[in-house]
Amino acid sequence: MADFLTSTHRAKWIFSPQDLKEKYKAANQRARQALEKYGATRMEVDIDGSWSYPEPQSDAKEIVEKHSRPKPLKTEEEQLLRTFYEFKIQDVCDAFKFPRKIQLVRLKKIMYQQKSLSLGFDLIVYAPYRALDGFVNVMEEFIEANDDQLQTLKDVHETAKVESDKIMLTDAPLLFPPGQLALAALYRANEVHGLLDFERYVGSLLSRQHDTHSISELTVSMNAIISLVTKLVTLTATDMKHVDRKLKLCRDPSSHDKSKKRKHRSKESSSEMHA
Fold it and tell me: According to the model, what pLDDT value does residue 99 have?
């Protein structure tokens, strides 16, 4: 059976906050350099994970005047776009009755940002959902649940799944192991339903699993995860219109001219209809 402790996910894709910040910054810088060198950031990702760009434009400065070049996205704008489309992925999952675990594509997407011949990860990427199921089973034993408590426990489980979905929209999966993500989701759910003394429950978990973490260490991690969730903002297409336009221009500067031509043709057609 696959084990997170020996996985490439744990070895290569759990970062410190500073390391993750630097990786975002480096990816943004590569995009800026591509925009300067090639006149666009559009690229192809080859099957081996390497990147390929069009031939450098030696006369790029002549083709695109400096004052009219597309402005590169800021790191913060890239993160807003990513979060916006991740919300959309969850909406699509709901519409087609897909499990939201498909959100794991997020981790692989981040991995593709690393330019190397090897992507450095195995097929399996871990999420909090399996750990959550296990923790709920232990919780049932811990409270020696009667019929009424079993219903509350089910409610806690469902609320924790929703909290896990929110967690997957943040940077938390790249900063903390899936077990800690699941505990943070359970903590939030237990706050809603008031099923048990969560600190005593965590202490029971640690003694059962002979875990080297202390309750205080796990509390710090859970609070950090919860803090990331509380900062999530639901963005609308209107909110993202300006950033999305910047992205399209960076990927293909000629799209602006194409858009202007379409609008011009549309106006001409409208004029002919009313003539």
Answer: 75
Domain count, the chain: 1
129 part of a folded domain: yes
Domain interval for residue 39: 16-56+67-231
d(CA 28, CA 227): 25
Determine, yes or no, domain membership for 254.
Answer: no
Answer yes or no: is 2 within a domain.
Answer: no
Contact 230, 170 (CB under 8 A): no
Distance CA 127, CA 173 (A): 8
Residue 112 pLDDT level (bands cut at 50, 70, 90): very low
Cβ 141 vs Cβ 132: under 8 Å: no
Note the pLDDT tens digit of each residue in 150-165: 999 999 999 999 999 9
**d(C-alpha 100, C-alpha 51), whole Å:** 29
For residues 170 and 228, the answer to whether their CB atoms sit within 8 Å is yes
Residue 176, in any domain of the structure: yes
Q: Report the C-alpha gap between 127 and 135 in whole angstroms.
A: 14
pLDDT single digits (tens) 147-200: 889 999 999 999 999 999 999 999 999 999 999 999 999 999 999 999 999 999
- Whether the CB-CB separation of 113 and 15 falls below 8 Å is answered with no
Contacts of 129 (CB under 8 A, 6+ apart): 101, 161, 164, 182
Residues in the chain: 275
Entry pTM:
0.80
Q: Mapping DSSP to helix (H, G, I), strand (E, B) and coil, where does residue 212 land?
A: coil
